[in-house]
Design brief:
Elements lengths: L2 H19 L20 H9 L19 H11 L24 H10 L15 H13 L21 H12 L19 H17 L13 E10 L2 E11 L5 E10 L3 E9 L12 E10 L3 E6 L11
Parallel strand pairs: 4-6
Antiparallel strand pairs: 1-2, 2-5, 3-4
């Protein structure tokens, strides 16, 4: 290897090591990143940097197109959405390849204890795909509290190989506008997520959590009768009307939380009953409530109740 090749190899190794070693959870920088000028994500990345959520690979470089590993991705999600562990458990209690003294070990513990679906054999140094980051980020977001979502089915042109869980996660994230498709309707789910993409998504998820998710008062709920009727809304799209009956009075309502798509063109609509505003006046008669969503044509739908009654934001 000649001297010029050695220099180039050394530069590449230095950049790779800097990205791997860069802390994604602590520290701030007073300098703007020079490689973000003109980048659409610049303001969000700088905001996260000022909050200590993530750092650059150096004082003035962020490397927005560099790939994110599982170690980095889990640290971003845990730091951004404020997840914490509830015990003194060690990473090795849950994972085969996460060392207890690794800089990201506590993040993996917090993620696992929060309920994120991380496999015991996960490799922290492996590249994380866009759909893996998105799915885990949604699970973290859902752990912060309940939030209503107006669920309209969004077709993902390159989503044929997504699992039911991944497709359901994408529908929620697209409807909440935390993630989006490209101009051709693609998400590129199996591409490795970049540092800029992860930063933008976690920034928008943090904003959503702050502005939308509210603490809820939960009480045990009885089971209510429910049915789903389908009607044509447009070419290739059906409107699904969920009707929940047997509600104690006309102040109770219903919200659709999520839709899970299964094999053989089946869909399960998960819903939650909402409590009346205590300051309101309602007819004290057994009532029903409805909510609508949209499904691809040809899908059969069933409904499943989530077992708690919630007070919507704004009610007392």
């Amino acid at each position: 290897m000649n001297k010029q090749s050695l220099k180039m190899h050394a530069k590449k190794m230095t950049l790779a090591c800097s990205i791997l070693a860069a802390s994604l959870s602590v520290g701030t920088s007073a300098f703007a990143f020079s490689d973000l000028k003109g980048n659409a994500a610049e303001s969000k990345i700088n905001a996260l940097n000022s909050q200590g959520i993530l750092n650059g690979i150096s004082k003035d470089l962020f490397a927005p197109k560099s790939k994110v590993t599982f170690a980095q991705g889990i640290q971003i999600i845990v730091s951004g959405l404020g997840l914490s562990s509830a015990s003194s458990a060690k990473a090795s209690d849950y994972f085969d390849k996460v060392k207890d003294n690794a800089w990201y070990a506590s993040a993996f513990v917090a993620a696992k204890q929060t309920g994120l679906t991380l496999d015991k054999t996960v490799d922290p140094n492996a590249a994380m795909t866009r759909i893996q980051f998105a799915t885990l980020m949604l699970q973290a977001l859902q752990s912060k509290g309940q939030f209503p979502v107006t669920m309209m089915y969004v077709n993902i042109n390159d989503g044929a190989k997504l699992s039911n869980t991944e497709n359901g996660a994408m529908q929620t994230l697209l409807n909440t506008r935390i993630v989006s498709l490209d101009k051709d309707g693609n998400f590129r789910p199996f591409d490795t997520v970049t540092r800029a993409e992860a930063a933008v998504w976690i920034y928008d998820a943090m904003k959503f959590a702050k502005e939308v998710i509210q603490p809820v008062t939960q009480t045990p709920a009885p089971s209510y009768e429910s049915s789903v009727t389908l009607s044509k809304a447009a070419d290739g799209v059906n409107k699904a009307t969920l009707t929940v009956g047997g509600l104690p009075n006309s102040g109770y309502g219903v919200i659709i939380e999520r839709i899970e798509f299964g094999a053989d063109k089946t869909a399960v609509i998960y819903y939650r009953v909402t409590k009346p505003d205590p300051d309101g006046m309602y007819l004290q008669v057994i009532s029903s409530a409805t909510a609508q969503t949209y499904l691809p044509e040809g899908y059969k739908a069933t409904a499943q109740q989530l077992k708690d009654v919630i007070a919507l934001p704004g009610s007392k």
